Amino acid sequence: MIHRKMSTAIAVAGLAALILSGCAAESDEPGAEPGAPVEGAPDWCGPDEAVVGLLDGFGGNSWRLVTTAAGADEVAKCPSVVEYLYADGQGDTQKSISDIQGMVASGADAIVVFPDAGEAMLPALRSAYEAGVVTVPYRVDPNGTDGEDFDLWVGADFVADGVAWGEWISENFPDGAKILFLSGPAGNSQGIDEREGLESVLTDDSYEFIGEQPYEVTNWDPALTQQVLTAAIAKYDQIDVIVSDFGPSLVGALPEFEKSGRSIPALVTSDGNVLSCFWEEKKDANPDFKLFTVATGNDNVRLAVQHAVARATGGVIPSETAFAAPVFEDSVSGSPNPVTCRDDLPGDIYLSAQMSPEDQAALLD
Amino acid sequence: MADTSMPRSLTSARVSISKGLLTVAISLVVLVVVSAILAPSSVSPGAVLGMLPFAAVLAIVGLGQMLVVQQGGIDLSVPGGVSLAVVLVTHMPNENDALLVPAVLAAFAWAIGAGLLNGFMVGRLGLNPIIATLGTNALLFGAVLGISGGIPRTTTRLLASIGGGQTLGIPHAVLFALGALILVSILVKRTVAGRRFEAVGASPAAARATGLRYRTHQGAAYVWSQLLFATAGILLAGITNQPTAFQGNTYLLTSVAVVVLGGTSLLGGRGFPVATVVAALFLSQLDQFVLALGVPFAVRTLVQAAALAIGVAIYTVNWAALRQRFARASAPAAIATP
Lengths: 365, 338
Fold this sequence. Notes:
The complex is a heterodimer. Chain A is an alpha/beta fold.
């Protein structure tokens, strides 16, 4: 009996969701020609009113916090967006899926999704897209097709990161180097893409990747990183360059070199204030410690938001479809930026992000 | 009930050495020898100094778990307890050394609160410890997210030097672990309250019959364990420098593993603090050894799982019965042969 009541209730709720999403889809008709931007707003902001939602798969670290704030900031540039919604999947795939369904049901015209669970998010993305909602996943690849499963995926170009790192290594170690590459969980596509980029530049045999292939598995966990690095230091007498796609997680691990009586080697990675300050503090005692960083990519979300808002409001669709992280710091050439430490601000901010360091610090308080 | 599976002591020796300690100590020696032959870099001074702080943290967590396990309970709120301590001592001070002491006190206050909650649910209300402590774990993670928003902060310099530093070449974390070991050993083995505590674990019914407040002892174990988890979390924050908000997650399985490897029965009874600490050292060195071997991540995980399975099997499989059975099975065959 109770079961029947519950299933009726669920059916009614589902029907309501369908009707609501249907309504949302109908009201989504573009009213004006694209290319007629709102005055004082960027050209990707069209004249049609829209409700825009940002969905995070996992909001629980400072990087995500800054990224989310960057997304909200980008949305706020467009006055046509009448309502901005946010949902945090809290690392739970089931919740992330129901967040999408909930947002579609509540009448969002466009959603920007960080699909942490990858392909598991594809059905939810597809159903949102088919319900007529502008759907823009970003950063993590949900393995679907643009225009079929969603409007488009605004990925980060991790191969480009690898290429930038490789070029710096070949410039600073022209005679070859022993390279230790650390990435996240086993098999993650980010690490594999970066490796591909590195190899496309470092073709000469004098460049040798040591340790586990294609990268040392650290799960981006500082404790495991420390253990992996300790083992590598003991095993290899010569490590010229460490490549890591999560620089700040190395701050606790790098002093292991000093404990073994060796200089911290060159580090090629993504930026973070804590890392820059660490370099500032350690550079004099460690002659080999050079630092090269690419932007950690908080602004990837801005491009995704632009695509979503442009489609929902009838603005000009940006031509860029992938976010290439710019080179940020180089302790050797000082270009485009020398390593910059803001020791008056928290370590967990990213000076490479568009958002000002002070605003990021305020977010963390 | 616990008596049949309780590891016996070698009574002929002047100092009694438990079967657990003997097994795990021999295993450790064998592991070190194998490490030295197959992956010499894993026993080099640098690698050992890098491994010891993590072994120390695991040892402290394991001691906490042991106190609960010897009461026939289990504390699955380890991840929440450790993570909350990590978050409190990094988030509250926000890189300001002056606020470190209040933060540490807050971490211990939370630990006592969580321990009392567990103790009340298990000791007083008689709830199943697996369910009760998992519930507390969820509550603690709620607190982790509530306090930090899931966003950890960089460790203060003072804590980094306390947790990650060395004195006379000995990592501080090791000193803390030794302190915890001595404290637990003396309290449990040399004080009246400790002997009562152990008696309750060996047989709650007998303890009750002799008029001991067995419920209080069972409940108190959860407070002690949370205090040790918090200590481990504070050290871990110092060691990793840039911890995540979920740093305790890896200790759920390993904390139980070291207790079992140390020979403490999951059914309750005597606790073996020294063996637990040696088991922590064994598991950490095993990690380091497999890392140094340079095998793929998948193999690494398999080796650790196999070590656990073998360790548990040593104590839980009834080897005497198994031998008897095989002897019986092979006896007719022996007769058949001319």
